[in-house]
Design brief:
mainly alpha; 88% helix
Length: 48
Amino acid sequence: MPKDIPQPVNPPTGAQEQKSQHKGPQEPLSGSKRVKQENHSRHNNGEG
């Protein structure tokens, strides 16, 4: 019984971690892309 408890508890933990990881990289990726675009625009303005 004790071995059966940790097994079922492991799947839910992994699923929650995967969901969090999926949301994590998606949010920062959007922010990084926005910052990169702004930086590029600024560089172009300064160069021009």
